[in-house]
Amino acid sequence: MTASFGARLSAAVGARGPLCVGIDPHPGLLDQWGLPRDASGLERFALTCVEALAGDVSVLKPQSAFFEAYGSKGVAVLERVIADARSAGALVLLDVKRGDIGSTMAAYAQAYLSDGSPLAADAVTVSPYLGFGSLDPALAEAERTGRGVFVLALTSNPEGATVQRAAVDGRSVAQTVVDQAASRNAGAAPLGSVGLVVGATVSRTDLDLSGLNGPILAPGLGAQGAGPADLARVFGPALPHVLPTSSRDVLRHGPDPAALRTAALRVRDDLAAAVS
């Protein structure tokens, strides 16, 4: 990598707009597209998404679980999605939500963040809930190779609040995640490479994001209920660093590549107007 992930993301958003589209080959979407629920249907679905979107969208976010469900054939499709999307100019954020300790976390970092790995993406999602320090192998490898890490902070699922909003020394657990991510981004320009995941559908954040100096992945746009106008309410002054994510609201327009592209560009333009 010739530049940090934060710098490459800033350039991509400047050129292509603030939109991340999830590639989520959910069985229901395969049915909707008229595809079989097997590795061949997965491949046609995923590569159609790449064909339609990778030339125009800043970031594509394959959900690893939907590929892993098909075993080695599914992982092979994921490898091709990563390679083809990056070749077409999109950044690839691999949604794996890995979190572990010691040598196991180091192995995850080797798989997803190391040069030469067939699963290496531009960035990955990770979970800090074994302690933020458990992410050190991933953070170190991402820094070494110019890649990014998005750390789960405040998610929109109702079960998450029990842990994420719990208080520790007067701060929520989610705020401690924000603060530790911010410390990793200190001094980075134009943007740090340690991002956060904060759901676009959370009713309130109660987070101080002012010192983050990093990107915020905001899933939940479209089918999950959040619209472009909600982003300013949820994220406030941090809005310029938000990367909203839409999946089903775009993917439901398949299998026609032109219809997929049109839907994504419409969402992108609506976001650009809301964020500006």
TrEMBL record:
Its EC number is 4.1.1.23. Signal peptide: none annotated. One of its GO terms (biological process) is 'de novo' pyrimidine nucleobase biosynthetic process. Residues 18-263 form the Orotidine 5'-phosphate decarboxylase domain. SUPFAM superfamilies: Ribulose-phoshate binding barrel. Keywords: Decarboxylase, Lyase, Pyrimidine biosynthesis. InterPro entries: Aldolase_TIM, OMPdecase_AS, OMPdecase_type-2, OMPdeCOase_dom, RibuloseP-bd_barrel. Pathway: Pyrimidine metabolism; UMP biosynthesis via de novo pathway; UMP from orotate: step 2/2. One of its GO terms (molecular function) is orotidine-5'-phosphate decarboxylase activity. The keyword Lyase applies. The active site is at K97 (proton donor). Pfam families: OMPdecase. It comes from the Bacteria. Belongs to the OMP decarboxylase family. Type 2 subfamily. NCBIfam families: pyrF_sub2. This is Orotidine 5'-phosphate decarboxylase. It comes from Actinokineospora auranticolor. The gene is pyrF.
